[in-house]
Every structure is written in structure tokens, then in C-alpha cells.
Amino acid sequence: MKKTTLNYIVDLPLLAHSVIVSVTGLVLMYGSHGASFLGFDSRELLHMHEQIGVLMVAFSLIHVVLHWKWMACTTKNFFTGKSSSSATSKARLSVKCETANPVEE
User: Fold this and answer.
1) How confident is the model over 52-86, as pLDDT tens digits?
2) pLDDT tens sequence across 2-24
3) Which residues contact 49 (CB under 8 A, 6 or more apart)?
4) 36 φ, ψ (degrees, to nearest 5)
């Protein structure tokens, strides 16, 4: 599977989960206790918020695993001062970190 396809398969649901958890969280926090939102009562919203939150955590962990080598490389470059102000040097470091991605093309 291509790296971009796999990232899309993981990142799109992660975005959707984040939006749903944010909206349900705001409704639960600022809505009145017995009110409904889009046909869901507060009990159903809480259940949805919790279940989709668990999915969001799972997809977040998968996202981190897929990008672990890139994150480690970028963090190492940041803290060791290997980044430079020149565009050529930044591009070279970016390529090194991108090639550290473990997902196969």
C-alpha cells in the first residue's frame, strides 16, 4: 500500500473523530442538561462522545506509529541544532526525515 493512501486512511477518520468529539464535548459542556442536539439526548451524546473518543485515541496512536521515525528525526534535528537557516540545508534535513518514514511506498 502506498504511504499516502495509508496516511489518508488513518488521517481522515482521525479528523472526523476529532470534529465529532469536539462538537459533542462543547454541546455537553455548554448545553442545558435535558436538551437534545440533532435528535440525540444528553445521555446519547455522552455515549457517542466517549465511544468516538476511544476511536480517536486508537487512530492517534496508529498515526504516531506511522510517523514515529519522522518525528524522532525531526525532534533530534531540532534539539541538536542541526537545522540551519539556509533553504538548502533545511531541504536536505527534510528529505532525510521524510526518508525515515517506515511506511513502504
Assistant:
1) 999 999 999 999 999 898 888 888 888 887 655 55
2) 888 999 999 999 999 999 999 99
3) 21, 24, 25, 28
4) -115, 160
For residue 32, the SS3 value is coil
Rounded to the nearest 5 percent, the helix, strand and coil shares of the chain are 75, 5, 20
pTM summary value: 0.70
**φ, ψ for residue 67 (rounded to 5)?**
-110, 15
Tell me if 42 sits within 8 A of 28, measured CB to CB. yes
| Dihedral in degrees, nearest 10, Cα atoms 78, 83, 88, 93 | -40
- Among 40-44, 48-52, 70-74, the range with the most confident prediction by mean pLDDT is 48-52
Return the SS3 of 40.
Answer: strand
Q: Are the beta carbons of 101 and 3 closer than 8 angstroms? A: yes
The total number of residues shown for the chain amounts to 105
